[in-house]
Amino acid sequence: MNSHTINGSIRILSSEKIDVRYVAKLARIALTDDEVERFGTQLSDLLEHVDALSRLDVSQVAATAQVVESRNVERPDEERPCLNRETVLTEAPQRQGGFFRVPRIIAE
Amino acid sequence: MSETMSAREARGPHEVGGAEARPERRFEAVIGIECHVELKTRSKMFCGCPNEFGGEPNTNVCPVCLALPGALPVANTAAIEHMIRAGLAFNAEIPAFSKFDRKNYFYPDMPKDYQISQYDMPLTQGGVVRYWLDDGTMKECRLTRIHLEEDTGKSTHAGSGDGRIAGSTYSLVDFNRAGVPLMECVSEPEIHSAEEAVGYLESLRRTLQQIGVSDVKMEEGSLRCDANVSIRPVGSTELGTKTEIKNMNSFRSVHRAIESEIERQIAVIESGGRIVQETRGWDEVKGVTHSMRSKEQAHDYRYFPDPDLVPLEVSRAVVERIRAELPELPPARFVRYTTQYGLDVKQATQLIDNVALALYFDEVVNASGNAKQSTNFVLGDLSRLANETQTPVHASPVTPAHLAELIALVEGKTINSKIAKDLIERMWRGEGSPKAIVEREGLAQTSDPAAIEKFVDDVLAANEKSVGEYKAGKTNVIGFLVGQVMKASKGKADPQLVNALMKQKLES
């Protein structure tokens, strides 16, 4: 667990001008300069909205990680039927034998 | 904690890098260990696909673990209970509230492009792993946390000739492992040598295996570990720059990799260099770690609560039920065996690693009240017979009660140790109560001096040559003569008595 990950998230959410290229890179999205401009404005608007929310007094509101109220939705440890492998691999862009074949992996 | 600290202080800071090589003790190693452990469940973490090792590729998959659109994960109760079980075994805190988060990154063996994990509210917090070293010293290493996540699929890199990712032209992915429940167990940096690292891992592995949460087989990947290693000058309390060591496939390679990395870091520092924070892979063949760094960049996983999974409220009743079900754990057993029963480290460890035998042993000790003889018989004759016949001791016809009876016969000098050895073989073959055999066949030891004297006189009379040799100074022939008496008495004579009487007669 790396603390810089937390810092990383905080940095993105609280900066005044969002680094759209960085966010796009994390999401593996290629953007044109026009798009960077356009999404930058839209995302900044969103962040401003979040800023507005963070100015609210929520001292009387319990913290939550979910908007639905249900808890402990679980399943018993039982096996269920799997998909047929041919069905699964039919949809694969590339296959080799029983495997999915994927392009060369470039380590980061 | 205090016990460990004082023990460490008493011996001074831990020496690293080999005593002969660096007698000056300039550096101390600081090591933290991260383990990934696949949980033993019937089905996967968030779907009903079988959790099994070694199936045909991509046969244990469904819309949930393949991340097909619209599929919804539902948490496996057994996996959550395993987490609580593991947390309690290490004396961790089990918070009343927990949740799942998404850890976002891209990799071909992770179909959702995020991994369901736990970020700031794991199922267990803190805890401590108690372990022991080969010399019997007890140590402790605190845990930061244990959290629950899902395993990824498995990639096989092809085209590079050696199966490595470097130089490969494509990869093959099997998603059978994707979604298998996985616990990540993170230690504090409180380990100071390769030996301690292995002791820690052994204890962790034994405990997880014995509480039934995992098979912990490194060779099948159900236990995987990385080590964070740094060094600092002895006496310093600051942490040095650490490297993360990967690709260690056995405890032996963990030991070798850590030793090698400590030596490398010392050499770098002593030659005026700096340690670079990086991931290093252990090369089993060359016996060195090598940099796996490509583009060093801080990961940004953008954790957020998984909206597909509702939070968990962990009921205290469930926690208490699981706590009550926990067996005696390896460190407690180790302390009991070594301090209360006087076993040595090897004997204690041998029993701890064979729980069925340890439970059997405990019953024998309880019934006989004699730990020493129980150890001798259980780890000696019975274990030998178990090996020879490929039958576990606890499944053999020798019940703990019968073995205790045998021990009482030996202790009460009703039979000697030679008869005892014969008896245990017969008990193993199913002849039942040793007391009954002894009574039925008159095997009780003869301690009657008159009877023994007769045997001794007969043997002396029949072996004049040996008697002459003894008198000429070749006193070790007494062993042969005593042996003749034992043979004549069919093993029933009290050997000590025979020996004393024989000596007396020869020297008179």
Question: Any descriptors?
Answer:
heterodimer; A: 108 residues; mainly alpha; Histone, subunit A; two-stranded antiparallel ribbon; 3 strands; 8% strand; flat; B: 508 residues; alpha+beta; Arc Repressor Mutant, subunit A; 3 domains; 9-stranded mixed beta sheet; disordered N terminus
Q: Approximately what portion of the residues of chain A adopt beta-strand conformation? A: 5-15%
Number of helical elements of chain B = 16
Low-confidence stretches of chain A: 1-15
Cα radius of gyration of chain B in angstroms: 31 Å
Mean pLDDT of chain B comes to 90
Query: Helix/strand-derived class of chain B?
Result: alpha+beta
For the biggest β-sheet of chain A, the strand order reads 2-3
What Rg of chain A do the Cα atoms give? Answer: 22 Å
Domain count of chain B, please report it.
Answer: 3
- Report the CATH C-level class of the domain at 4-55 in chain A: Mainly Alpha
Strand percent estimate of chain B? 15-25%
Instruction: Round the mean pLDDT of chain A to the nearest integer and report it.
Output: 82
Model description:
The complex is a heterodimer of chains A (108) and B (508). Chain A is flat. In chain A, strands 2-3 form a two-stranded antiparallel sheet. The N terminus of chain A is likely disordered. Chain A has a domain of 52 residues: Orthogonal Bundle (Histone, subunit A), CATH 1.10.20. With 108 residues, chain A is mostly helical. In chain A, a hairpin with a 2-residue loop joins strand 2 and strand 3. Chain A is 44% helix and 8% strand. The longest helix of chain B is centred in the middle third of the chain and has 20 residues. The radius of gyration of chain B is 31 Å and the shape is elongated. Chain B has 3 domains: 315 residues, no CATH class; 88 residues, no CATH class; 59 residues, Orthogonal Bundle (Arc Repressor Mutant, subunit A), CATH 1.10.10. In chain B, helix 3 runs antiparallel to helix 4 and helix 13 crosses helix 16. In chain B, the strands form 4 sheets. In chain B, strands 1, 6, 7, 8, 11, 12, 13, 14 and 15 form a 9-stranded mixed β-sheet that branches. In chain B, strands 5-4-16 form a 3-stranded antiparallel β-sheet, with no helix packed on it. Chain B starts with a helix and ends with a helix. With 508 residues, chain B is an alpha+beta fold. Chain B is 39% helix and 18% strand. Classes of the chains: A mainly alpha (108), B alpha+beta (508).
